[in-house]
Design a protein that fits this description.
globular, alpha/beta
């Protein structure tokens, strides 16, 4: 990947690229006129150089694209942590250390593995979420712990940026979360929407 951070001010849309697009990128059967039907590759029908991926869904498939040199050299890859998917899908696949190492190796900007302060109202993982005010600050403290631990193993400072996520529903909660998390090193922050 090239040095892309000076180009971030020109980014105004970052699509989320899920499993099928990544899977199709590595399959020669999904081509039209020798162009792949995915936005990720050098030979794409509709190329996209900036996108968000998620190690929860792409932990094994995305590295294959890198190894085969199928991706654009000028790509700007954002990488979410997969924490939300663990809640929605009910399966913990990787811990914060594994996620961070993957992010550092395969993306330009990774978002911290945060502990999300929401809980299910009715036991369903897909609907009925509510803010968990009782555990809000505990979630922030655990996220801070995760961030501190991964900063201890960080090796890449020039090609990879590490962003914290600020959770909450309003400016006061955002400030509380930020005041806890600012103890950990990060290159920037992402503010989460006020609902799950």
């Amino acid at each position: 990947m090239t040095d892309v951070f000076d180009k971030l001010d020109k980014v105004n849309y970052v699509p989320v690229i899920g499993g099928p697009f990544i899977g199709y990128s590595n399959n020669d059967n999904f081509m039209i006129n020798k162009q792949r039907i995915t936005p990720l590759t050098k030979d794409s029908i509709l190329p996209c150089k900036t996108y968000l991926i998620n190690p929860y869904h792409s932990f094994n498939d995305f590295p294959k694209l890198v190894e085969q040199n199928l991706l654009r050299d000028d790509r700007i890859v954002f990488s979410d942590s997969g924490g939300l998917q663990e809640i929605n899908l009910g399966i913990k696949k990787y811990n914060h250390i594994e996620v961070f190492k993957w992010q550092e190796k395969y993306s330009n900007i990774g978002f911290c593995y945060d502990v999300i302060p929401f809980k299910s109202i009715d036991g369903s993982r897909f609907t009925g979420w509510t803010f968990d005010g009782k555990n809000f600050l505990n979630c922030a403290q655990q996220t801070l712990k995760n961030m501190k631990e991964v900063n201890e193993i960080r090796t890449e400072f020039q090609k990879f940026k590490f962003y914290g996520i600020i959770q909450g529903r309003n400016i006061e909660e955002y400030k509380q979360w930020f005041n806890i998390k600012k103890e950990a090193k990060s290159d920037g922050y992402c503010v989460k929407t006020p609902n799950n």
